[in-house]
């Protein structure tokens, strides 16, 4: 794990008088605060608190994420994921996942304020039993083959680089029918769901759900720029639940041959829901980008904290926040996170071929709420 040496200190608890003045609006006379402590004390007994002591923190001038930039090298993380298999079975764990914890948000299962990320592993012959929940999940396949996920009665086999969706409240179980381990990155929106106290979860009566659709059914119905004329879709989640890397990579490769490159993103594509043209998932925005060998992006910042994982190539990302600047060197399967409003430039190494990065963020929510902002520097 690489991270900044400066990690923001958590705010002091609500004891009075508080030595922490970070939330005060600038106009408050701090010398006069002591004289007001009796008033604060009496108001507190009525569960009332003065806004002027906290307004600056409640409504900051610019985003001030607790989450810090961080990088996890796959070579350092993988041994722990493997060791988790000797510690616990999928049966006992329900899902065997090692969770990425942002150093600025310890103990909260958050890689950013709003996003969850973890590495899930399934060994040959294992099954992760069926359940469903309001939280949506994405799977980005890191290594292995011959493992499947089943979603509402349809199975899909997964290969490295595939982007697989588990929509809200769909029954899902995973299994490995191959002869080696399968590891994928789990991205979930449960922190967003829990922010609204809107979470439900149910365990399926039985280890796996019945499969009643042929493999490839969803792809046939909605994965070829064609949709059945007699079908309505009732959710905001894409009916395509596996976007195979083979097709994504081919699109990026062709694009890079004829299209002018974007100075801030390289060749960057968003995964879309073919039914409505919006993001593939209602809460999580997912993208794949190609940075040609030796290419360096111009500095960029946006309000969506973003999780990246490297699919191909090598390179580095320079990330600047108000507390400092860091350069993360990355290669295949490494995972790094860029917090809201941090400025980032990505560079693809001049030696290791084109770099390909998968990313997900909370932009799909911010777009719907008219909160998303970006700056191309
Ligand atoms: O695979 O169903 O990492 O429900 C967290 C919650 C994975 C899953 C996670 C889940 C799953
Ligand atoms: Fe789940």
Q: N- to C-terminal separation? A: 29 Å
Helical residue percent? Answer: 10-25%
Domain count, please report it. Answer: 2
Mean pLDDT, to the nearest integer, reads 94
Shape: globular
Structural class by sheet pairing and helices: alpha+beta
Biggest sheet strand line-up: 1-2-20-17-22-15-14
Tell me about the largest β-sheet. Answer: 7 strands, antiparallel
* Percent of residues in β-strands: 25-35%
> Which second-level CATH architecture of the largest domain applies?
Sandwich
- Looking at CATH, the homologous superfamily of the largest domain is Jelly Rolls
For the record, the CATH class of the largest domain is Mainly Beta
Kindly identify the CATH topology of the largest domain.
Answer: Jelly Rolls
* Count of helix runs: 8
Low-confidence stretches: 4-14
Q: In total, how many beta strands?
A: 23
Bound chemical compounds: 2,5-dihydroxybenzoic acid, fe (ii) ion
What distinguishing features does this structure have?
Jelly Rolls; 17% helix; alpha+beta; seven-stranded antiparallel sheet; 2 domains; 23 strands; binds fe (ii) ion; six-stranded antiparallel sheet; binds 2,5-dihydroxybenzoic acid
Report on this model:
- The chain is α+β, with helices and mostly antiparallel strands and 377 residues long.
- The protein folds into two domains: 55 residues, no CATH class; 307 residues, Jelly Rolls (Sandwich), CATH 2.60.120.
- It is 17% helix and 31% strand.
- It has eight helices and 23 strands.
- The strands form five sheets. A seven-stranded antiparallel sheet has the order 1-2-20-17-22-15-14. The chain has a six-stranded antiparallel sheet with strand order 3-4-11-6-9-13.
- The radius of gyration is 23 Å and the shape is globular.
- About 3% of the residues have low confidence.
- It binds 2,5-dihydroxybenzoic acid and fe (ii) ion.
- The site of fe (ii) ion has 4 residues, from strand 5.
């Amino acid at each position: 794990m690489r991270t900044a040496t400066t990690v923001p200190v958590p705010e002091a608890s609500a004891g009075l008088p508080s030595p922490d003045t970070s939330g005060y609006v600038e106009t408050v006379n701090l010398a006069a605060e002591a004289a007001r402590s009796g008033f604060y004390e009496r108001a507190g007994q009525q569960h009332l608190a003065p806004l002027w002591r906290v307004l600056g923190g409640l409504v900051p001038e610019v985003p001030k994420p607790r989450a810090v930039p961080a990088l996890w090298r796959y070579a350092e993380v993988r041994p722990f994921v493997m060791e988790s298999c000797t510690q616990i079975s999928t049966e006992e764990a329900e899902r065997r996942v090692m969770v990425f914890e942002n150093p600025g948000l310890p103990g909260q299962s958050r890689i950013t304020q709003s996003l969850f990320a973890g590495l899930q592993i399934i060994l040959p012959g294992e099954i992760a039993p069926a359940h469903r929940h309001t939280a949506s999940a994405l799977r980005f396949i890191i290594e292995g083959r011959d493992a499947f996920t089943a979603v509402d009665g349809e199975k899909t086999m997964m290969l490295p680089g595939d982007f697989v969706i588990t929509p809200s409240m769909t029954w899902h179980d995973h299994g490995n029918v191959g002869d080696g381990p399968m590891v994928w990155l789990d991205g979930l929106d449960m922190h967003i769901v829990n922010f609204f106290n809107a979470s439900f979860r149910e365990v399926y009566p039985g280890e796996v759900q019945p499969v009643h659709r042929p493999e490839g059914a969803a792809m046939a119905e909605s994965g070829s720029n064609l949709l059945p004329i007699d079908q309505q879709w009732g959710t905001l989640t894409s009916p395509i639940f596996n976007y195979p890397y083979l097709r994504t990579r081919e699109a990026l490769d062709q694009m890079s041959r004829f299209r002018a490159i974007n100075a801030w993103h390289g060749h960057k594509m968003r995964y879309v829901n073919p039914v409505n043209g919006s993001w593939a998932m209602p809460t999580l925005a997912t993208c794949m980008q190609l940075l040609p060998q030796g290419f360096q992006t111009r500095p960029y910042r946006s309000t969506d904290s973003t999780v990246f994982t490297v699919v191909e190539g090598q390179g580095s990302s320079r990330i600047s926040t108000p507390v400092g600047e860091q350069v993360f060197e990355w290669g295949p399967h490494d995972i790094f996170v860029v917090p809201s409003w941090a400025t980032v430039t990505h560079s693809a190494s001049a030696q290791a071929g084109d770099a390909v990065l998968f990313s997900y963020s909370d932009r799909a929510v911010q777009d719907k709420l008219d909160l998303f902002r970006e700056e191309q520097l």
